[in-house]
């Protein structure tokens, strides 16, 4: 490992550990109308859904409802990990350095969100690549479980019993 890589790793670890100590500071109660999604999670997800599901007929609200249903069914440990990921992405202290989105998610452009997703996908840090994969899997599962998504991909739906 070269000196520059060591310094970069040290800075990243410091940011991560500092952010991890703040995780849990956000309110843990669900937002009105949701079982698991919190008020602070909504702007992040409302910004990500149109970018991640671009080219589909996905309704942001429908995807949020499906995602909420999926999160509510998670074990407490998995829900806690998912909320920690959302917290890292929504806390202003960590959002800017980790994502490159320095303003609020509601004001982020599609291009900024795409750069963030590419940055995490191509990161040399495994933790960021895992975060990218987790975000995409959550949103894609939430959309493709919906009957509205089935016709577009040629899925006739589950067999009738």
Description of the molecule:
The mean pLDDT is 88. Helix 2 (41-52) crosses helix 3 and helix 3 (60-72) packs across helix 7. The protein is mostly helical and 161 residues long. The chain has one domain (35-147). The radius of gyration is 17 Å and the shape is globular. Helices cover 64% and strands 0% of the residues. It is built from 8 helices and no strands. The chain has helices at residues 3-22, 41-52, 60-72, 76-90, 92-99, 110-121, 126-144, 147-150. This is Twin-arginine translocation pathway signal protein.
The main pleated sheet reads as:
none
Structural class: mainly alpha
Q: How many angstroms separate the termini?
A: 58 Å
How much helix, percentage-wise, in residues? Answer: 55-70%
Please provide the count of β strands: 0
Average pLDDT works out at 88
Shape: globular
Order of helical and strand elements: HHHHHHHH
Taken together, the total number of domains comes to: 1
Name the poorly predicted regions.
none
User: What would you report as the Rg, rounded to the nearest angstrom?
Assistant: 17 Å
Signal peptide: 1-25
Protein name: Twin-arginine translocation pathway signal protein
Keywords: Signal
């Amino acid at each position: 490992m070269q000196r520059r890589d060591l310094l970069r790793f040290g800075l990243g670890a410091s940011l991560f550990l500092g952010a991890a100590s703040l995780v849990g500071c956000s309110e843990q109660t669900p937002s009105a109308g949701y079982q698991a999604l919190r008020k602070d999670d909504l702007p992040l997800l409302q910004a990500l859904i149109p970018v991640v599901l671009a080219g589909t007929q996905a309704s942001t609200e429908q995807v949020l409802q499906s995602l909420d249903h999926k999160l509510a069914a998670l074990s407490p440990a998995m829900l806690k990990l998912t909320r920690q990921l959302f917290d890292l992405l929504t806390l202003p202290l960590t959002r800017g350095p980790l994502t490159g989105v320095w303003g609020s998610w509601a004001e982020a452009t599609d291009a900024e969100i795409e750069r963030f997703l590419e940055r995490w996908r191509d990161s040399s840090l495994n933790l960021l690549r895992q975060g990218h994969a987790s975000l995409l899997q959550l949103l894609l599962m939430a959309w493709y479980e919906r009957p509205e998504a089935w016709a577009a991909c040629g899925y006739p739906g589950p067999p009738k019993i």
